[in-house]
């Protein structure tokens, strides 16, 4: 496996600097709740008020190591929020890597000297200096002042998932994160709704998880659900314990798991899905089972949320009100609001009008076989509809190089034969794109958000195609 030391480039604090509109404030408060007594978070059946939260933030900020970067690895979402806010108050930058393995974390620390690990658990095989926040996050007695944070202060450095190749780092300032959260709320008309609880199956370290389960509650007066449950039964139990209705921030991968087990989700008011396209049939099944609307977010680590759609209404995406989109030379650009200056997108997009568009898939997933072109995303979506397939992906060994090569596929389909899967696919796609060969596997190496990083898929393919060969160093 290639060393990640050459993969993760440090984010320049001036890179894609957030251009604050003239009408935007120079600073934003940490929380936007109506009262210090409002519920800030729920853990099991215990609530934490905004006052509790602020006390913990100030107490922790005064005790953090005097370093520049805090690698926030907290699993508990409330602990994460307290640590994130305390680092912000202490003028430290939170590093939010999506991979928690020892070697990548060590490499992140090498890229960002003067860093330490902020954690709420001991399940780590790393030698980096660490600071535990568990007790301070629950029993602190600091100030209750709601701090005003400069909009241009760098709050976090987030990393891409690596699904298109190598993970890259992106600096986020406080103003862009706040404006992104406000845009998210306006996109779903949250101003007309009473305060709710954001329950997530995506880690807070992921840009989508940060936006929907941390920043949205902070800036819209909602509550953070402290847990990090993923399994269907655990999510059901979490929802049963909440005192207020909840919105579930999740992924197509997790939704499919809950639907396959027909998990009941009490107290649910809405679902937001992201990280990969959601099949309309899955969204419809979810709405039929849980009687709540299912929305999708389109975005990227670089720009955050850019657009949304109510999946069962159709394929068109609606751009956030504050953003503008233009196309030039086959590329699509977006700017304004929380995005700032013009940002080039990696996806192929067909604009329907100034605010609506069709998403055709990433440029890098366009495959060419026998003179014909297809999207890997579209092929994977078709594969997911095959009867008996629980998970699967097409694999293009030549991806990103000459643009040619035979497609193969890895499929999780217990009790289903290769012949049956291929026969079903033959009715749905052009024969030149049929996977040759098709491998039946027990599982795929998806990350916590359900994505398949390019590097992990390559390593997985190497092991499946050449089981006796030593992994590449």
Question: What does this molecule look like?
Answer:
The chain is α/β, with parallel strands linked by helices and 473 residues long. It has two domains: 4-361, Rossmann fold; 370-465, GMP Synthetase, Chain A, domain 3 (2-Layer Sandwich), CATH 3.30.300.30. 28% of the residues lie in helices and 27% in strands. The protein has helices at 50-63, 77-89, 102-111, 134-139, 174-187, 207-220, 232-241, 252-260, 280-290, 376-384, 418-426, 454-465, and strands at residues 27-29, 39-43, 46-49, 69-72, 93-96, 115-119, 130-132, 148-150, 154-159, 169-173, 197-200, 223-225, 246-250, 268-273, 294-300, 304-310, 317-319, 324-328, 331-336, 340-344, 347-351, 356-362, 366-369, 372-375, 391-395, 408-412, 438-440. An eleven-stranded mixed β-sheet has the order 3-2-12-11-13-14-15-16-17-22-21. The protein has a six-stranded mixed β-sheet with strand order 7-6-4-5-9-10. Strands 18-19-20 form a three-stranded antiparallel β-sheet, with no helix packed on it. A hairpin with a 2-residue loop joins β23 and β24 (372-375). α1 (50-63) packs across α2 (77-89). The longest helix is centred in the first third of the chain and has 14 residues, at 50-63. The chain is globular, with a radius of gyration of 22 Å. The model is unreliable at 1-20 and 400-404 (pLDDT under 50).
CATH names the topology of the largest domain as Rossmann fold
State the CATH superfamily name of the largest domain: ANL, N-terminal domain
Beta-strand fraction estimate: 25-35%
Q: Sheet bearing the most strands, described?
A: 11 strands, mixed
Please tally the helical runs, counting DSSP H or I stretches of 4 or more residues: 12
Strand order of the largest sheet: 3-2-12-11-13-14-15-16-17-22-21
Quick one: how many beta strands? Answer: 27
Helix % is 25-40%
Counting copies of identical and different chains, the oligomeric state is single chain
Whole-Å distance between the termini? 5 Å
Classification by helices and strands: alpha/beta
> pLDDT below 50 for ≥5 consecutive residues: which ranges?
1-20, 400-404
The global form is: globular
CATH class of the largest domain: Alpha Beta
Please identify, by name, the CATH architecture of the largest domain.
3-Layer(aba) Sandwich
Count of distinct structural domains: 2
**Average pLDDT across residues?**
86
Q: Taking Cα atoms only, what radius of gyration do you get, to the nearest Å?
A: 22 Å
């Amino acid at each position: 496996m290639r060393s990640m030391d050459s993969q993760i480039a440090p984010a320049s604090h001036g890179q894609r600097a957030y251009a604050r509109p003239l009408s935007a404030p120079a600073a934003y408060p940490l929380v936007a709740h109506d009262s210090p007594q409002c519920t800030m978070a729920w853990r099991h059946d215990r609530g934490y008020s905004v006052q509790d939260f602020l006390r913990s933030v100030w107490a922790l900020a005064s005790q953090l190591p005097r370093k520049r970067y805090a690698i926030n690895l907290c699993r508990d979402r409330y602990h994460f929020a307290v640590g994130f806010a305390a680092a912000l108050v202490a003028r430290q930058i939170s590093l939010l890597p999506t991979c928690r393995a020892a070697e990548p974390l060590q490499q992140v620390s090498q890229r960002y000297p003067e860093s330490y690990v902020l954690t709420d658990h001991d399940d780590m095989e790393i030698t980096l200096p660490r600071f535990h926040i568990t007790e301070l996050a629950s029993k602190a007695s600091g100030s209750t002042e709601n701090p005003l944070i400069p909009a241009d202060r760098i709050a976090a450095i987030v990393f891409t998932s690596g699904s298109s190749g190598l993970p890259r780092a992106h600096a986020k300032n406080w103003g862009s994160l706040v404006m992104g959260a406000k845009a998210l709320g306006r996109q779903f008309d949250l101003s007309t709704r009473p305060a709710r609880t954001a329950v997530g199956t995506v880690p807070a370290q992921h840009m989508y998880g940060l936006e929907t389960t941390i920043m949205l509650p902070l800036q819209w007066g909602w509550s953070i659900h402290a847990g990090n449950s993923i399994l269907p039964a655990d999510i059901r139990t979490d929802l049963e314990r909440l005192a207020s209705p909840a919105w579930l921030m999740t992924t197509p991968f997790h939704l499919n798991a809950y639907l396959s087990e027909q998990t009941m989700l009490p107290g649910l008011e809405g679902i937001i899905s992201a990280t990969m396209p959601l099949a309309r049939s899955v969204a419809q099944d979810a709405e039929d089972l849980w009687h709540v609307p299912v929305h999708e977010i389109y975005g990227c680590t670089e720009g955050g949320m850019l657009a949304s759609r109510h999946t069962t209404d159709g394929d068109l995406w609606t751009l956030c009100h504050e953003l503008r989109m233009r196309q030039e030379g086959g590329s699509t650009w977006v700017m304004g609001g929380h995005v700032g200056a013009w940002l080039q997108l990696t996806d192929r997009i067909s604009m329907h009008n100034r605010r609506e568009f069709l998403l055709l898939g990433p440029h890098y997933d366009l495959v060419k076989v026998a003179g014909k072109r297809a999207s890997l995303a579209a092929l994977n979506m078709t594969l997911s509809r095959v009867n008996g397939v629980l998970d699967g992906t097409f694999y293009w060994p030549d991806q990103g190089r000459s643009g040619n090569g035979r497609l193969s596929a890895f499929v999780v389909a217990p009790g289903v034969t290769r012949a049956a899967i291929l026969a079903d696919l033959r009715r749905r796609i052009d024969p030149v794109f049929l996977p040759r060969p098709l491998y039946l596997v027990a599982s795929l190496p998806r990350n916590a958000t359900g994505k398949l990083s390019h590097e992990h898929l390559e390593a997985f393919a190497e092991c499946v195609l050449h089981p006796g060969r030593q992994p590449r160093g």
